[in-house]
Amino acid sequence: MINMQRLEIFVAVVEAGSFTGAAQTLGLTKAVVSFNIKQLEEQLGVSLLIRSTRRVSATDTGERFYHRCLQLLQDAESALEEVRNDHSGLSGSLRITTTLEYGVRVIVPALADFAVKHPQLRIHHVSSSKNDDLIAGRFDVAIRLGHLADSSHHARLIDQFDILAVAAPCYLNTLKDASIRDLSQLASAKWIAHSRLSTPLSWQVTTPEGESVLMSAIQPAMITADSASSLLAFALAGSGVAILPVWLVQEAIEKGGLVRLLPDHQFPRQGIYALYPNTRHVPEKVRAFIDFLHERLTIANRK
User: Fold this and answer.
1) Bridge partner list, 92
2) SS3 content of the chain, % helix, strand, coil (to 5)
3) What predicted TM-score, i.e. pTM, was given to this entire model?
4) 17: phi then psi, degrees, rounded to nearest 5
């Protein structure tokens, strides 16, 4: 029969490199650690550790066994966590970072409802226009929009959205025909660009005929900004044309503050991703929130 405590002691000895260090980590005496390692080796019939006067290290067999023990201990902790959560709900803290705009409109309302379902869970939401580092910021989840760059983190696509070319009527009235009727006119417009995009003035556009065309602005951007809310404010003020998410501009379009340009053309759809650290054991609170958010957005899209 497997003694999980002995496995935990063995892992601690390998990681500490000594019986004394493992004893300090586990809050046990050195004699208890030594006894349990001896019993484990006798039970398995193999030598797991090499002892020297300065350091304890794993044998080849011990090294392989160490990695198996890590997996077993993590699986056991996961099982215990699931049982605890089934009984008492999620607990601890959940740190999430998002952009300000999407956070206010979508993530914060979702977090508010999630908190009601799990009252023992402490939620920390951080708004940022920058892609904050998950590890340095101690974030459990980051919600990223757009096209996801290569990352060492896990990522799950939870939704997609359209982006639209928009401008205010007061800007369009300054143009010769008071409108923009084709891609060449759009390329010639005054542009308001997002400074954090790698190619803020080039877009692969699908025409009404289904042809994919690269559209690039002829002139440099008249104005750049590092947040979608700033771009929206500039567009509403008549500063030029901007490409913005439908969820951000739909209300302004309906109220007449903005006009959707070339509505029969399709700009590339953007993804909404949940990023979380690349660890073997994903906390239940992380899985639960991502599943909750995905289900919530799926239901919203059906309405």
Assistant:
1) 121
2) 45, 25, 35
3) 0.68
4) 75, 10
Q: Looking up tokens 């902790």, which residue turns up? A: 77
Provide the percentage of residues in the chain whose pLDDT is more than 70.
93
Are 126 and 271 within 8 A, CB to CB? no
Integer Cα distance of 135 and 139 in angstroms = 6
Q: Does the domain made of 163-268 have the CATH classification 3.40.190.290? A: yes
Segments of the chain assigned to CATH 3.40.190.290? 163-268
Express each pLDDT in 263-281 by its tens digit: 999 999 999 999 998 776 7
- The class (CATH top level) of 85-161+271-301 is alpha beta
Cα separation of 80 and 68, whole Å? 18
Alpha helix stretches (DSSP H) within the chain: 4-16, 19-26, 30-44, 60-88, 100-102, 108-117, 169-172, 183-187, 228-236, 246-255, 284-302
In this structure, the chain runs to a length of 303
What are 136's two structure tokens?
Answer: 């340095």
The pLDDT tens digits for 58-102 are 999 999 999 889 888 877 877 776 666 554 567 788 999 999 899
